[in-house]
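Students often ask what a holo structure prediction actually looks like on paper. The answer is less mysterious than it sounds. You provide the chain, you provide the ligand, and the output is a string of discrete structure tokens encoding the 3D arrangement of the protein together with S-adenosylmethionine.
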Amino acid sequence: MTTRCKLPPTAGKHELYEAAVQAPEHESTFLDRLYRRVTGQPARLLREDFCGTAALACAWVQRGRENRAIGVDIDAPTLAWAEANNLAALDAAQRRRITLVRSDVLKLRRPRADLVAALNFSYSVLQTRALMLAYARNARAALKPGGLLVLDAWGGAMTQKPHIDRKRLVGGWTYLWEQASFDPVSHHTVCHIHFEHEGRRRHRKAFTYDWRLWTLPELREILAEAGFRDLQVLWEGTDARSNRGNGVFRPVTRAPADPSWVCYLYGRAPG
Ligand SMILES: C[S@@+](CC[C@H](N)C(=O)[O-])C[C@H]1O[C@@H](n2cnc3c(N)ncnc32)[C@H](O)[C@@H]1O
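The corresponding structure tokens follow.
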């Protein structure tokens, strides 16, 4: 949850995942600003769907005394890790403003939130249009009138062929993202996360994702069918010097055909 400067050789897979993949403080700031810009109001209750270790929900309650969060995940051991590590690191007042719920995100509708976020592409586990639509409808029902559903999405030519990306972490650790398979007919993809320590694979297949690679037009059509309005894709700008993403996401109606991109999209529940 909070940025850990050190990763010991004994680090576990959740700790490594958070260090490699997540930026919850940054993401909670992004969501806070986005909600204010779109609705003109501050968001108070965030629901983090597919919350895993609930890093975002924890960062949200740390942002302000009026912020509350619900983390929803179906996996009891992951939620237990979140409780014992991330929630335990909060102070008592922050702890009172966060609730973890073991539930299927397709079913839980109450309490209604200002903002529902499903990040790191977790909804990709829903592999049929019917399931994705059911999720979008449920998220709409779980939002207060005018509330926002925010998803991230990934794509580009690189995400349609098997490959391995490596990223160095601190403490001698390396993160590996292996896209093991991709089927152009169904957009079914299987990906693994591995962690190496000083060249040796310590956590092989730490996480495996059996996913559908959803396209932006599919997601937009599904959100619209579920009743969301003001749909918007937010695309990352490019830093002129490095030619890499600059971390600034702006609304677009067209985008360049980057070989590997990540973006956000949101829809607003009817007010
Ligand atoms: C990629 S991980 C979570 C990542 C986290 N949201 C993040 O931003 O890094 C996906 C999580 O979704 C959970 N999950 C999968 N299907 C679910 C469902 N139908 N309802 C709730 N949680 C689900 C898994 O247990 C897992 O913890």
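The pocket of S-adenosylmethionine is lined by residues 21-22, 50-52, 72-75, 78, 104-106, 119-120, 122, 125 (CB under 6 Å).
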